[in-house]
Amino acid sequence: MQTKLFFFLLGIFLWLGFGALIAGLGALIISYTWVITVVGYGAVIGLLTGLIIGLMALAVSSWLKSKNVMLWMLLGSIIGGSIGFGGIIVFGGYPKGNQGDLSFLALAPMGLFIGTLLGILVGVGIWKYRHSHS
What is the DSSP letter of 34? Predict the structure, then answer.
């Protein structure tokens, strides 16, 4: 139980930092002047996201009766979210330096959300593969 609690808290703190980081990067991309304020909002959103993902990881670990799946879910969510966010930046060609940068406000959360969900699914899939072949 202590390991599950540790992974749960780790997920919250990882997402808190990740939310602050990507919010700051997003604010810099669209040249927003109040970057520190956006970082604070990003940290709060990251905290809530980490709480939701941590609770999902707790539920899945109880269902599958393995604490290791939690780590795979947390790592998958962070890596998938990074890939989704980075993909929007790279394939969207941001920053553009004009009004087109405002489309980033709509596309970045969608890329982050889709990347996070796919990362969680891939993380659980990798855990399942490693669990069944060991």
Answer: -
Cis-peptide into 95, omega within 30 deg: yes
Q: Residue 45: what residue type?
A: I
What's the CA gap between 49 and 53, in Å, rounded? 6
* 89-128 per-position pLDDT tens digit: 999 999 988 888 889 999 999 999 999 999 999 999 999 9
Structure tokens at 88: 């929007």
Nearest to 18, CA basis, from 64, 72, 84, 68: 84
Measure the CA–CA gap between 105 and 124, rounded to whole angstroms: 30
- Say how far apart CA 92 and CA 44 lie, in whole Å: 26
User: What confidence tens digit (pLDDT) does each residue in 41-75 have?
Assistant: 999 999 999 999 999 999 999 999 999 999 999 99
